[in-house]
Design goal:
- There is one protein chain.
- The chain is an alpha+beta fold and 132 residues long.
- It is built from 3 helices and 6 strands, in the order E-E-E-H-E-E-H-H-E.
- The protein has a 3-stranded antiparallel sheet, with no helix packed on it. Strands 4-5-6 form a 3-stranded mixed sheet, with helices on one face.
- Helix 1 (41-64) packs antiparallel against helix 2 (100-110).
């Protein structure tokens, strides 16, 4: 098993990562009967995309001698009403400047991360790389 999820009531869960014991609280969003006091399940999907992209880039960056420490990823999730689902995820990556060759390699790595490849093709993914 990877995780164990316990429903706490009032549209809230606690999710435990079994290998580490780390927990995440989820809450339904305010636009779907919840309190919006924690990540919603769809927030986690969108956030997982950004986390996966930067992680895969960081793995590749070691071979390129590029330091991605303090890089950031901003995520915006846009929901569709009927049927209720994620319609679009906007990803804005802010990264240290590097050579054009390294940028191409790292951008390719990000766009082939497992979460990106696992998301349904109907979910629009708007990805921007900001090299500074």
């Amino acid at each position: 098993m990877t995780s164990k999820i316990t429903y706490l009531g009032e549209l809230r869960t606690t999710c435990e990562h079994l290998q580490s014991g780390t927990t995440i609280l989820t809450d339904a969003p305010t636009d779907n009967h919840g309190k919006g006091e924690a990540f919603s399940p769809t927030d986690l999907v969108a956030t997982s995309l950004g986390s996966c992209m930067i992680s895969i880039m960081a793995i590749k960056s070691k071979d390129l001698d590029v330091d991605l420490v303090d890089s950031t990823v901003e995520i915006t999730k846009i929901m569709q009403a009927e049927p209720r689902k994620i319609a679009k995820i906007i990803v804005s990556l802010h990264l240290p400047d590097t050579t054009e060759k390294n940028k191409v390699i790292l951008e390719r790595a990000a766009m082939t991360c497992p979460v990106f490849l696992s998301l349904h093709p109907d979910i629009e993914k708007d990805v921007t790389f900001h090299w500074k």
